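To close the chapter, one final illustration. This time we ask the reader to focus less on the individual chains and more on the assembly as a whole: which components sit near each other, and how the overall shape emerges from the parts.
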Amino acid sequence: MAALTLVNVTKSFGKTDVIKGVDLEVQTGEFCVFVGPSGCGKSTLLRMIAGLEDVSSGEVMINGARVNDVAPAKREIAMVFQSYALYPHLTVRDNMGLALKQAGQSKAAVAKSVDHAAAMLALEPLLARRPSELSGGQRQRVAIGRAIVRTPKLFLFDEPLSNLDAALRVATRIEIAKLHRDLDATMIYVTHDQIEAMTLADRIVVLRDGRVEQVGAPMDLYNDPDNTFVAGFIGSPMMNFLHAGALGMRSATMGVRPEHLAISRTAGQIEGTVSHVEKLGGETLVYINTATQGLLTVRLFGEHDYRVDETVQLTPEAARAFHFDAAGLRLR
Amino acid sequence: MATRTPLSRSIAAHAVLIAYTVIALFPVFVIVINSFKSRRAIFAEPLAIPTPDTFDLVGYTTVLKQGDFFQYFQNSMVVTCGSLFFVLLFGAMAAFALSEYRFRGNTLMGLYLALGIMIPIRLGTVAILQMMVASGLVNTLTALVLVYTAQGLPLAVFILSEFMKQVSDDLKNAGRIDGLSEYRIFFTLVLPLVRPAMATVAVFTMIPIWNDLWFPLILAPAEEVKTITLGSQVFIGQFVTNWNAVLAALSLAIVPVLVLYLIFSRQLIRGITAGAVK
Ligand SMILES: Nc1ncnc2c1ncn2[C@@H]1O[C@H](COP(=O)(O)OP(=O)(O)O)[C@@H](O)[C@H]1O
Ligand SMILES: [Mg+2]
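The assembled structure is written out below.
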């Protein structure tokens, strides 16, 4: 059954349309990630699912029931925010238990649920502290714990890792993935970071300017993008887009991932000069300025020695290239 | 410009601040020292510190013998604290509504409420008096509380709504998802975070109310509802002024404002220096 269904949902703030008609179905137990550049409407869409923002038109259904006019607290959802949003005047224990207390559960039942959630996230030593006495990573774990306590039908995450440093981000990402497996819960996760999207998602929804560009499993989007936007957004470093006409092709644009662009000092289709080299140990990124195709990126595995200003030749791997029409749509 | 060493700059800064403090406190200082002197000494040497020779508590004894003084004091306290309470409560609630909810005419309503900052309420004195007469509120403390609440609200709404816009949306939304009512969100989540702004508003609201002579004179001149500012006027006559008593009354009138100010000042300084709410 679908845990969440959106039917032609739109949102306008005054005259500006922020969400321009989104249709989506999220299955029970699925980890669904909304990804897109900043300002494309991800948070707005998530807040509409939570009921924090009215829907201008369309329908939001949770577990098959229309919830357009249901208050956030009654939607059986839980939300984790980028800024943690812990209640500053309450201890960790009270922060986690507040929703159940508000729902009228007995003290003993609340304590039991809080203890259970705290055990899952190893939060027991922190239960008596206040949010101001916690580090950023601990605060976010408490915020996640607060969501777990409610045993919601739907978990909503709004960029929960953005305020954490790189190492903590990876650790918390793994923790969220593990939580999803353990709880078997339906999760909707918003991020602008395509790596988070790729690593966590069962299914990714790519948004641009309030519209869904493509929906699919991470590898489907990577290997079979519908348009230049998705092709450019998914995958790092970004795909190279070549003027196909200059290479004698019939399509308007040819997309080639950096690992599918062969580099040689002797022969190739496109000539250019090395403008910058990044050596990462396991891989080497070479940035090449070309006269006909602009700046291109080549990704090589292992260590390679290219000097800046050296002249090199590039050849796209034709079989791995994607072709797009003038409007950016994929030609298959 | 020549660069100055931090030391000379710090000396200069302190000199300016000390000079300003001395100038600002001088009138208060003169009032307080003279309130402890005999009438003759006040006029002979107004700037002298009381000596055993000139020391005289006659001002204070006159004021305290004028039996109603404590009544005046109490009236002033009731009016000031009552008005302050309503200004802060209604001001904060209006500010929350203006900053939190999107509704038709929101901006217009904000402007309308802020308009009162520019238009002095005294322009409406005649109308206010007519209204108070019609509703039988003349010579009651209620009349003063109502007028001062109206007088304090515009600035309170203006300042508080700016601060409330800075309170994290996520926090309020977390409360909504956890099932808190809008009132609980306002009182338990938002108000504690704008406490410095509330203190600022409290000080700016309180002092003009405590010092006001105009409305007590017009709306509540009766003996049992006189405020202290009005009460002190009995010592200022057309022909003879009892300066000892006036100075003693003024010195006593400073005390409560000072106490209230000290209560708010910790928050106030935080409000001025922080300027923002996290
Ligand atoms: N309350 C609001 N009033 C007006 N415009 C808004 C409001 N909230 C968001 N927007 C606009 O909606 C767009 C999408 O915002 P948001 O959903 O926060 O983007 P994202 O989370 O994808 O970065 C932005 O252009 C933003 O300016
Ligand atoms: Mg966002």
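The CA atoms of residues 274 and 288 of chain A lie 4 Å apart. Chain A has two domains: 4-230, 238-331. With these observations in hand, you are ready for the problems at the end of the chapter.
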